[in-house]
Amino acid sequence: MTIYAWTNNPTHMTLTPIFLQAKEAAEEVAALTDDTRNQVLLDVADAIETQAESLLEANKADLARMDSASPLYDRLMLTSDRLRGIASDMRHVATLPSPLERELERRTLPNGLRLRRVSVPFGVVGVVYEARPNVSFDVFALCLKSGNACVLKGGRDAHESNRAIVALTRRVLAAHGLPQAAVTLLPATHEATAQMLEATGYIDVCIPRGGKRLIDFVRDTARVPVIETGAGVVHAYVAPSANLEMAAGIVANAKTRRVSVCNALDTLLVHEALLDRLPALLAPLAEKRVRLHADRRTLPHLGFYPATLVIPIADGQEEDTYHTEYMDYAMGLHAVASTDEAIRHIARYGSGHSESIVTGDEPEARRFQRKVDAACVYWNAPTSFTDGGQFGLGAEIGISTQKLGPRGPMGLSALTTCKWLIDGDGQTRA
After folding, report:
1. pTM
2. What is the pLDDT of residue 12?
3. In this structure, are residues 416 and 100 in contact, taking their beta carbons and an 8 Å threshold?
4. Could you tell me if residue 397 is inside a domain?
5. Phi, psi values for residue 275, rounded to 5°
């Protein structure tokens, strides 16, 4: 499926020929009509459903190597229903308007030069990710639709699944007479990651998807441009005026819908006026056996909660507790005296991903949304909606927490850059 070239050092594998093939493929992909790209996506979607059994067999091989108790197990797992959902998402991407050749700006200069700024593909998009084989399909769909080639560097945990996915995708590309290097899977090694991050002139942009350690490593070591999709240390704040039944549903959905995803709740902030109402607010979490890392103010009010699930935050452990992205049935619990205190807590410990307030007071909600510095800030809704599909973007390639370039769920437009087109009539510059 991939070709590796060896240097004179037999212990070192150079991936430069692979990157060159991807660069050459990107030129062809950029020149395709949108109709051709859409048909490829539709054919891949059909292949996902007709070849589901082989994909599931490859996934079973990966699952067999992972502890089923690991929070990553659910992320790694493919099922028939999930494959049908992936196929449906790919068909949806095919229906979206092309993000290419959009006129972003137009002006005529005093000298008569006519300027247009239009959207164009990046070229080659590299993605480093962990145990999420669905990402392989998402990245391919979004990159092809936006005229890009993609280079995938998945983790060891999902390598058999990723190999099967890329092989399927390449067969469809070949059937259309298109370069198979439009999607390339690198070896699941640290060396491959290092080479991709240094592939200047070949990789136009790299997007890491995973935990904080992976993202920090990519940001700190890459020589190619990086769009940072930061880890999600996510908060919900329940204010005194909140509808407690609504709040309980929002908190439970944000925490327990899928605990291993980046938009899952990590710390619940509760106004101290509501401490006596914690039984109503936390009952759904108790049913799901969520462990609470509780501060001193909330601890005396948790007598109703299963004692084995309550973990007092020890002195000196606040920093570690509140900076944690749990990705498990666990979260922090912290009481605050005001909305301003909640905002300050989020400013100190949040990762800029997704934050939520539950309140019946609209001015309070708007102030919270204005002052909280995050890509997505919710009022009376769970952070579980931070998702490209939920935002109507089709599949997403990641959720950016940086401020330069795209921010929040990244759909098709986030995979384009721009160029200036200048038309003249023989003008010269003095």
Report:
1. 0.85
2. 60
3. yes
4. no
5. -60, -35
